[in-house]
Structures are given as structure tokens and as C-alpha cells.
Amino acid sequence: MDRGAEEQGMTDGLARDGWLLGVDLGTSHTVAMLRRPDGRTRPLLFDGQPLLPSAVYLDTTGRLHVGRDAVRLGQAEPGRLEPHPKRHVDAETVLLGGADVPTADLLAALLGAVAREAVAAAGFLPPAVLTYPAAWGARRREVLTTALARAGWPPATALVPEPVAAARYFADVLRRPVPVGSALAVFDFGGGTLDIAVVRNAGVTPDGLPRFTVAASGGVDDLGGLDLDAALVEHLGAELSRGEPAAWAALTEPVTLAQWRARRQFWEDVRGAKEMLSRTALAPVPIPGVEHAAHLTRDEFEAVAGPLLRRGVAEAAAVIGAAGVAPTELAGLFLVGGSSRVPQVARLLHGELGIAPTVLEQPELPVAEGAIIVAAPAPGDNAVTPAEPMRPAAVPPPTDTMAHPVPDGAPASVDRDAAAVSAGDRPDAESAGTAGRPVAAAGDAVGRSVPAAGGPVGRLVAAAAEPAGREGAGLDRPTAAAAPLLATEAIGPPAVAVTETDVAAGEPAAFPDLPQRASASSVTGAPPAAPSPAAPPSAGPSQAPGQQAPGHQAPGQHTAGPQGGAEPHYAEPVDPWATGEAAAFGNVGGGPMLHPVSGAPGSASPVSAGPAPSGAESWLASTHPDPAPSGEPAARAVLPAYRRKGLWIVAAATVVVLGIAATVVALVWPRYPGLDYRPLAELHRIKPAVPVTSAFNATALRDGRAYFAGADDNGTLGVVAAATDTGKTLWSSTEAGTASRWEFFLALPDAVVAITATDSGTSMRRMVLLDPGNGHKLWERTIARDDGLTFAGGRVVLSDSKEGRLVGLEIGAKGRGSWELKNPKSTYDLTTTAVVAVTTEEDVAGPATPGGVPFADRLDDDQRIVQVGADESARVIDAESGDVVAGPRPGVAQTDDKMVAHNGRLFVAESRDAHRLFAYDLEKLGPTVLYTPATGNARLDHLTPCGKDRICLVETTGYETATAQVVAVDAAKGGVVWRRAVADADDIVAVGEAVLVRRNTAPAQVSLLDGEGRVAWTRPGVVARLDAGNTLQFSKPLSTTADDPALAGEHVGDDAVPLGALAGVRSASCAWDTSHVACVADEDFLIQRFAG
């Protein structure tokens, strides 16, 4: 059996629940990702950063120091420092300070540091997975096994090839399709080496999980970030040797320790300039001993780096050819490793190979997180959830939550205080950040807010990292799904009624007759490179005699598997102080990085390419508001809810006169009667503006129109508008332009909005607004990665993270700023903020995604937003005028607390103390305690309005999802209306006073609780709200590839009505109102009627 497949099979099922640790032991840096019991994945922090320098220092007492401490100690005695122990995997020992230290001991020291941080975070050492290069044979893997044993790790620790881990991240977290039989190229460009592999999807395991194997591997031994640094040094040296010969001589031939330190600082400054040139066009480089700094331009850098990078591109083409596939036949080209952040890398690969690469904001992290997914796919890991549309509302930037708290329920022997990081208390890892996110990490589909990249999405349009809320941009991970039904079949037999019993963990689906099936989803050493003239001599002033110079792995010849032939040799490293002096290690990416939080269990991401559903996301005020009932005239003028008191008084007499008749009607006629369901009919096909690809697809419905968006292989976004009743194309536009990746798409009353993903070179995004009447561009604006967007009234409220302010941008005035407010500051001058849009009852009574995000909620029924500042104060702002209409009130909430603003109140789930649920009246911000859990370690999540003056939530004891209960609380008087235990409850969506409960099971299931908390049914598949009394049901998980899900409509309390099957649609792109469903198909768009 192929080694990758064999070891993946060994790890499948290693730890499907609970804690799990993934470790990428890299040449330059080590990364460790920790998955918590609630499914969240975070990097372990080492001295406050997610990257641990893979450096080891031997002191005079024989003790080994690692990471930044090793680097600092090595500056005084470089002969005792080994910056890259992994390069010596072929050697038995490494000479440090005159002593022969076993290579396995150096690696064990690094693994020991990882273990200590893991114990500090979890209270014990979780089951772990360690990655290794695909070209490593059994002997090298034996060195890792020995190191694990010496570090005290259990023998069950699994080993996984690095490209296999990267492939699982690509398929599961980014939700990029890699069909069975297709291949993915992984371009791992780190600080020291370039490793390239082609990974093939060889089918599925008995559990229905993808099985990836390495089809070919290779690389370049003398190409990494350090080699780019050396090339820049040589470029600068050509000028310095002529203009400042003495200064250059001191840098190239240092004698004194001061000169060695100056040399180290110079190389560090060159590295910093290289990183800066990835973001700007010009970067200064201070020259020791020279008055004025030199200046490098991006053009100079690309001219210097171009020949080196083209070697890597040529090697990639050779490896892909060795795998027997053409570049254009690949399912993707995934760039990982810190040096892949250089924009020129992706550009050259795209230009030479003809396939657009995928590169992330933090490319150092995917391998470690992918290892976790290989070992323990999260429940529901095979199901793709739909790309949720962005709802108009607010987008706060994410909060750094990478911390080491000891979780509730940790062994009593663990000292909680000891778990605190020495640098000071860090944010609780439980908070998913405030964002709005994305986007990026974690809300549901984008609603009225677009969070900063990586943040959760509610009424936020999640920012760039990731994917639109938990459903995200359609990149949810696959899970075992129910078999598809024929068009003539009902979704299933009548659900098994369990009305008076709680839904227990592991309860079987209520479709016992429905069959289940799993859905798919020889190297030779290169000769050492000739040393660069700018490179340091092989030994420094403190170099121990005979010390070996570290080398680089360099696979050159390709094989059909990871072990075909001799293992690669290691060449001399291009490392300016590896042998003369320690490197000043820092973040390869240039500064501290925030991990793109996987907001769902099993690493699902918020709106990034499509996060999977998660109960771990942060909830902002607008996370669950829903659209207004369809069919309402868009032009109807409505006063904000809090300004209607005069109209209420005028109408009082009429109400009295009609009261008796209205009461009778209400008793005999439901407010939301069953829809007139009918089999799918009136198929209309719409021609796209650009060819349909898998790059990006989305649909939005509003006011009788369907808006379709799709990006072609070049990133050009085509948007088409069509009438839902006739299918007539109203306009077709490509004026949104081109982007490397698009992230969000939504329809507002006065604009159609598209937002790009964050550009890896500039850390910026682009928001484009099109005229819904003709498709012409209204205006566009560049926004930063950490900026948030909230849609309220006729404004886009921008949360400007750089300037620490809110700005009201007029949609109808080309984005002109009509007002500005500075963010509240904390005592440490922090301006982090969370913005929540206020929703009304109508907002939670219309068509919504399976995550509860409205497709077309109104923005003018309540134009207020609530801002929570870094000082924990809250204030209410009129989004139209920018006036502060209430507050500020101190001590309301932290910016990452679970919040929702609805029907005149702000609801806050307290993250500290007793974990109470508070309500604040938006007129005066007066507080009321609505609910206090019985235990101190209770967690309140997924706050959702669920009826007039009622708020529903999920309560768990610690992180035990099996203890989950859905609780309905009286929002006016306080107290519990009802509660029901629903094991593994992951999300709730209101349908009037009833609630749909998504459960984190495999296969994914949904339970319906009626208005009194009784369980009406539990079913597999996907269920979404049509209005406050009706639901639309899909027979299986939504997919980003063409599929044929069966549909059914159901009025709450009645039997489901089979509607037939959608044919060949990308169901994750579908949107619906109360009569039509619109989807992106395999090659075009379609609209079909199902009711009315």
C-alpha cells in the first residue's frame, strides 16, 4: 500500500472527539495546532507567536534550549547553536560546543517544548500527529520515532506525510473539491527548502473519508527563504563594495564579535526588507557603518529572485509531469510554507503552469492543521454546507484568541495559574474573535455584516480568510450523506416522533429506511550549491572545530511514490549565521500572525471559501437575523422601529375597533400558513457572463430578482440578474473586475455587493457595488484585512481598524463618508471593536440559509447599530446619521462576547463570572439579568431570537457537546420558557417559535423543536427556513460540485411535501425565497418554482 494512504488509514479515527495535536516540525520553524473538544483549532503559542524557531542550543551544563531562547543564547556562542536540526536527519550526531549531540535529541528537545505548551493549554498531552517530508524513507522516519520516544510522547503518535496533511486542509478547510482520481500539487516553500509533491485522491476509507496518496515528489535543496535573502545581500554587496568597501568588508569578513553581530543584524534587516517588499514597492535596508540606508525596490527584488524562483517553477512542472498529469488537469495548486507569501511565487507559477495557485495569509499553518484533519475528521466531516450569502450588517475585525488556558474540566492537579503565559494573560481561547469573520474565523453565512478576515459572520460579511460564516462561501467539508432520492420520492418516511424525549447523543436518524452511503470526496541528491560571494564563511569566531554545516534536503529526480529510490542528500545551507553566528529568528511572514480560525468543529472556517458548520463561532448581534418576508414591495417606506411611536398612538383606536375580529381570525388562521407546495416546475436556464468554474459561485434573491455570480479561471467575476418568474435575463456584467479570489456576494435593496478575498501581498480587500437595475459599477473601495463592514439603512458602516473609527459610507452617493466616530479606547489604547446590527421580528421570519442568515432582510426597519468598544462599553448609533442615540454605558461586554441585538434589546452572554445572559434596553441601555446557569462552567452560545420576546440559545457544560441543551428564555421578564437536551447541538435557526437544531453528528442531522420545546422529528440532510412557519429540506448535504438533491417543503406541524430533485446543481450555491429556488449549475444558472 502507498505510504501516504497507509499512514492516513492508521490515523483515521485516532481521536474523533476531544483534544488532538498536529505538529509540523519544519526546517526553520515548528508549528503546532491544537484542536479542542468543541472543534476549534488554534495554534500553540511560543513566546506569543505561533511559530517556534527550530533552533537548539547546548549550554555549558549540557542542557538544550530551543526556539527564541536558543537563538538569543547562540548570538554569544554560535558554536553551541544548531539553527536547523532537521537538516541533519542523516547524521547520527551534531557537533555543538565540542560535544556530539545525537540528532534525535535535538529534535526531541523541540518536541518537548511543543509538549509543554500543549500540556499548559489542555492539562495533558493530547493524542498527536507529526508530519514529515514525502520523500523521507523508513530510516529518516525512524529518527523521528526515536525523537518522539525521547521526548516522552506515547508510541501511538502517528506520522503523516506533509503533502497529505496539506491536501486534507485544502479539501476540508478550504472546501476546494478534489474528486476521486484527481490530483493536487503541493508547493511547500519554506525558509530552508522547497518540497513539491503531487497528491492524488485515491478514493475513500470505509468511513467515507478521502484517502490521499503521494503520486510524485521532488524539490530543490538550495532554494528557500534564506536563499532569497542571500541573493538580495549579494545584490546590495555589488553596490556597497564600490561605494563603501570598508563597511562591506566588515560584513563579509567579520573578525570581532561586534562585527559578527552587525553582520547578523544586516541579514535580519535584509530579510525584513524582503518581507516588506511583498507589501510595498520600496523598502529601506540600514547598512552597519554607513550613514544612509540603502533602498530596495520591488522591481529589484523580483529581478534578483526571478531566476531562483523559476528553478522552483521548473521543478514543479517536472514533479507534476512525473505524476502523469498535466498542470491544467490538477484540482489545485496549493502553496504552503512561509516563503510562498512572496507574491512573485504565485504569479510565476500561474504564468508558467496555467493554473492559479491557492496561497493563504498564514501559509506556515495548513500542514499542522491538516494533520489533525487526517487523524480525526470532525463529525460531519464529509458533508459540504452551503456557501451562505452575506447578510447586510456589520463586520468587526477578529480578536487574537491564541492562548493557553486550562479548560474547564481539566485534571484538578493542573494549576490554572501555572497555565498562564509568562508574558501575561492572553485572551481566552474560547472567544472566536470579534469580527464581524472570516469572515473569516467563524460566524454563519454573511448577513448584514462582513467581518474582518477570519472573523465570524452574522449580519457581517466575513472578511477574508475565510469563507462566509460557518457555511461560508461554499467550502464546507464533506460528511457522510444520505443517499439521494429519486425525484418522485419523498424525503423519507414519516419522521419518528420523539416529542417527549430528549435527543440523546448518537440517536439514529429518523429515516431508518433510507440507505446511507459515503459521499466522495527515485530521488537523488543535488550537488551543493556554490556559495554566494555574500554568504558567510563556513565558521564564525566561536565555531567549534569540525562542526558540520547544516544542509538542505533536495529531491531532484521524481518517482511515482514517496519512496521510489535513494533518499535525498542535504547540500550546504545558505545561512548567513548558521555556522558563524545565530540567526535572529522572527516571524518568516513578517511580524506576529493570527491564525485563520477554523470556526467549526473539525476546522471549518467562517466565510472563507466556505467554512463548515460550527458551534464554536463567535456570535454578534446580527448573527441570526433573517430576511423580511418575500413579496413585500421594496419601495415601501418604513420608519425605523424606534421612531414609530407616533404612528402607534394614531393607530390605537383602530386597533381597539378591530381587536375582537383580529383575535378570532388569529385563532382560526395561522399568521404563516402552509405554502402552496408543488413539484419543481418552470425551469429557466440563464446564460452566465463568464464560464462557470469551481473558483467562486454564489446566488442571491431579492425583490423578484435572482442575482448569480461566478468567477472564471482568470478571476473575472461575472454577475447576471434575471427575473425569477420568467427567467428573463435583465442584465449581465463583468464590471466588478478581476481578483485572485472572490469571497462574498450579496444583494442589498440598492446595490449588489461583491467582496474579494484578502490579497496576500497587500493584506487588502476590494468591495465593489453594482447597480441592481443595470449591473453598472456604482463604486468600489479598498478595505484592509481587519476592517469590518455592516449594512444598515442606506449605509455601509466601515470599521476602520487602522484609524480606529467607524465611518458611515452612503450607498447611493458613491461611497461618500457621511459621518465618522472614533472607537472607544481601552486603558492600553486598544481600539478593538465589535459592531452589531439591530434586527426586528420581520428579519427572522423570511427565507434564510441553513445557518439562519437571511437572503433579503430589510435594512430600513431598524437602522440602529450597537458598538462595543475595547473598554467594554456599549453605545447605540443611528447608522443613517451617525448620531449616538444611547450610551455609552460602561461594563456591558467584551468585544468577543456572544451578542445579538434584536427587537429593541441587546442580548449578551457573559463570558466571565457566572456566565449569565443579560438584556440591555436600547433606549437607555439599562441591564436586566434574564438567565443564570446552574453551574459555573456552563457555556452559552448561538443566541437566536425565536419568537416575540423570546431568545433561544445552546448551553453546554464545559466543552462536552453531549451535554448540550437548547434553552428558550423570556426576553421581557427573564426565566426559562422551556429547555430540551439535544446532544451535539451545533446551531439553531428559528422558524417562528419553533427552532431547527443542527447537530454535529455523522451524518449531519437536524432536529425540529416546536414552540414548547418538544422534539417533533430528527432527520438527516439540510433544512432551512422559508418563513416563520415553513421549511425547505434537502435530502443530503449541500455540495460545491454538480449534484441532484431531492427537495421537500414542510409547514411546521404538517407532513413534508415532496417537490422532486434539482438536477446537476451546485447546491451549496443555491438561494431561495418562498416560491423559487435559484442555483448555479454545472455550466449555467437555473431558476425553478416550487410553491405559489
In short:
Residues 383-440, 509-574, 596-632 are annotated as: Disordered. The protein has 1092 residues and is an alpha+beta fold.
Description:
It comes from Actinoplanes nipponensis. InterPro entries: ATPase_NBD, Heat_shock_70_CS, Hsp_70_fam, PQQ_rpt_dom, Quinoprotein_ADH-like_sf, WD40/YVTN_repeat-like_dom_sf. Keywords: ATP-binding, Chaperone, Membrane, Nucleotide-binding, Stress response, Transmembrane, Transmembrane helix. Residues 528-539 have a biased composition (Pro residues). The chain crosses the membrane at residues 646-669. By secondary structure, the protein is α+β, with helices and mostly antiparallel strands. The protein has a domain at 3-225 and 307-372 and 524-571: 2-Layer Sandwich (Nucleotidyltransferase, domain 5). It contains 12 helices and 59 strands. The strands form 15 sheets. An 8-stranded mixed beta sheet has the order 40-39-38-37-41-42-43-44, with no helix packed on it. Strands 1, 2, 3, 4, 10 and 11 form a 6-stranded mixed beta sheet that branches. Strand 15 (282-285) and strand 16 form a beta hairpin. The chain is globular. Mean pLDDT is 75; it is low at 1-17, 377-445 and 454-669.
